[in-house]
Amino acid sequence: MNFKELFLDNPNRERRFLEIDGLKIPYTQIKMSPTRLQNGEFSPNEPVKIYDVCGSWADEGFHFDTKRGLPKIRKEWIESRAEVECSGALAPRENVPFKERKIYKAKPGARPTQMHYAKLGIITPEMRYAAHRENIARLNLTQDPSKISERSNPNFQHAGESFGASIPQTITPEFVRDEIARGRAIIPANINHAELEPAIIGRNFLVKINSNIGNSALASGIDEEIEKMLWSIKWGSDTLMDLSTGKNIFETRENILRNCPVPVGTVPLYQALEKVGGIVEKLDWQVYKDTIIEQAEQGVDYFTVHAGVLKRFIEPASKRLTGIVSRGGAIMAKWCMVNGAENFLYTHWDEICDICAAYDVAFSIGDGLRPGSCADANDEAQFG
């Protein structure tokens, strides 16, 4: 399809930039229709400025060629920290046009993660970028109090329930750094995903929306997955998960990453299972390790790791009405049962942490034992 038309087909939307702190922060300005007053006259409304996730795909002068990918806006930031080194180059593969891409990894003894820098008190360009993006909605405020209404003031809202959140009036780079250092927020930003426009995720920041895409053994190819990704960011998805389980998983993900301006996540266990022909019994730590390194070298920004499905939880889970509904959880439960051994993701947890730190990959412990029905929602006592 015509990707230029996809992103530039609405004359009421315009991509603009906030130039601040030496950065160009994108936002979208939307023209608003006038409000009809009771006397029949119309009152004009100021344009609304919103958080933008489209990357260069929304720029009029962009090439709109998925074979060329996005500009690497973080390349100089990553290299200037002098904590990474080139560990090789992408081997030539069919259906992958990005054959000259260098692969980066932490230098020996280095830890090039946003959390590590935050704990050292360092404010990175990624932190500054994410902080200023969070404040985009405040550009809608006017200095004229008479023009501020419930609809035009983004700070007007019902009191609601904060659930412990403490959001300041203005998000500063210092606040971003401190929240990351405290472990309450993350900036998923793999050193091999230089095309990324950094975003922060945490309880004291804007809500972020994720979308899931991915091929299967039955349907979809590389071009279709790229198009899904582009439609996702077109409609404002802040993050993207590639859950491909079919053919050409590596090639599909490489094309997605080189064209995606938002953080990309995966469930590595899915690809590891495909590598052993879908036979759970053949899974082992080495296959999984090779998979997460491969994905980290590609630039995946966050993983779901089903390390919490322990051997001792399988018997009580079998008594549930709907059993284990998580695909990753079911895979690891079967592996534990067949091999009579503890979950290898749990026993190799420290090594997983070290691998992720070498590429700055964020990760979560996948909820492999989540209930699939109300009948199973209160069985926490059985799982410690």
Give your account of this protein's structure.
- This protein has 384 residues and is an alpha/beta fold.
- It contains 13 helices and 14 strands.
- A hairpin with a 2-residue loop joins strand 1 and strand 2.
Overall number of strands? 14
Q: Report the helical percentage.
A: 25-40%
Q: In percent terms, what proportion of residues is strand? A: 15-25%
Classify the oligomer.
single chain
Parts with pLDDT < 50 across at least 5 consecutive residues: 143-152
Radius of gyration: 23 Å
Helix/sheet category: alpha/beta
What is the fold's blueprint, element by element?
Layout: H1 3-8, E1 13-20, E2 23-30, E3 35-36, E4 42-43, E5 48-51, H2 75-80, E6 84-89, E7 102-106, H3 114-119, H4 125-134, H5 173-181, E8 185-186, E9 201-202, E10 210-213, H6 222-234, E11 239-242, H7 249-259, E12 264-266, H8 268-275, H9 285-298, E13 302-305, H10 314-317, H11 327-339, H12 344-347, H13 349-359, E14 362-365
Parallel strand pairs: 10-11, 11-12, 12-13, 13-14
Antiparallel strand pairs: 1-2, 2-5, 3-4, 6-7, 8-9
What are its keywords?
384 residues, alpha/beta, five-stranded parallel β-sheet, 13 helices, 15% strand
In short:
This protein is of the alpha/beta class and 384 residues long. 30% of the residues lie in helices and 15% in strands.
